[in-house]
Amino acid sequence: MSREAYVAPTSAFNTGTTVDPTPGLTTQYICGDCNQKVLLKQGDPIRCKECGHRILYKERTKRMVQFEAR
Fold first, then answer.
1. How many helical (H) and strand (E) elements, i.e. helices and strands, does the chain have?
2. How many angstroms separate the CA atoms of 33 and 60, rounded?
3. Rounded Cα–Cα distance for residues 17 and 20 (Å)
């Protein structure tokens, strides 16, 4: 079968549109210069909205993380 003759399979689950499962999901970062909290979405430029500094640190998660030591 040639590449031009290929037809993508269709099913009830594949409608041909891709939807982001988490639209508008923002992640909170802390500016390395002015310590302001910055909310960024996917695709936003990595830059503090207050001072323009380009080094941002991801805020630590609030949920408990536990590792098993051997």
1. 0, 3
2. 18
3. 10
Taking residue 5's Cβ as centre, other Cβ atoms within 10 Å add up to: 6
Name the DSSP letter for residue 60. P
- The 10s digit of each residue's pLDDT in 24-69 is 788 999 999 999 999 999 999 999 999 999 999 998 888 888 889 8
**0.85 exceeded by the pTM?**
no
CA angle 34, 50, 55 (to 5 degrees): 55
Within 10 Å of residue 8's Cβ, how many Cβ atoms?
6
Residue 59 is given by DSSP the state P
Rounded Cα distance between 24 and 12, Å, is 26
Rounded Cα distance between 40 and 6, Å, is: 40
